[in-house]
Amino acid sequence: MMKYQSIMHQENLCGKALKMDVMHIVMKTVNFIRAKGLNHRQFQEFLKSMDGDYGDIIYFTEVRWLSRSNMLKRFYNLRNEMKFFIESKSKFVPELDDENWLTDLAFLVDITSHLNELNMRLQSENQLINGMFQTINAFEMKLKLWKTILSISIRSPSTVL
Predict the structure, then answer these.
(1) What is the pLDDT along the chain (161 residues), one digit of tens a residue?
(2) 3-class state of residue 3 by DSSP
């Protein structure tokens, strides 16, 4: 059986094309917390004191593209805690108060989650090329459906879902 992996690499490149300005703010905020040992320890203690569901924020590196989805999800879930912590350090991230930016962040969280799921399906063992092709076609159909739903919701927000 021959393995075919270039589909995954093409999908990965498409995912990188989705990099929006949102990622810059997210990475800058995460780096502020994670890059300095003191900030990082204080943030972990802060989360512990809040009895949160998470004990830390995930560090993102460009090398591990699949980590983007997990990091974005965690960032989104901890956005209020991070905002409070960063403001306690006299640093402000105005985007964390911006509804439009938060909407873009939520969209990026969702789409990277779906791309991550697609990647995992394409990487599973003993895949035949026709199965991989069907997986990608199904994903393209989902994208078209989401595009249609988004275009409808932009025109008349009260009629969607």
Answers:
(1) 445 454 555 445 554 555 467 888 888 888 888 888 888 888 888 888 877 666 666 655 554 555 678 888 889 998 998 999 999 999 999 999 999 899 889 988 888 888 888 888 888 888 888 888 999 999 999 989 988 887 887 776 655 55
(2) coil
In sequence order, which residues have a C-beta less than 8 Å from that of residue 19 and are 6 or more positions away? none
* Rounded Cα distance, 76 and 102, in Å: 9
**Domain coordinates of the chain in residue numbers?**
6-159
Q: Are 49 and 42 in contact (CB under 8 A)?
A: no
Instruction: For residues 151 and 145, give the distance between their C-alpha atoms in angstroms, rounded to a whole number.
Output: 10
d(CA 136, CA 14): 12
- Please tell me whether residue 93 adopts helix, strand or coil conformation: coil
Radius of gyration of the chain (CA): 19
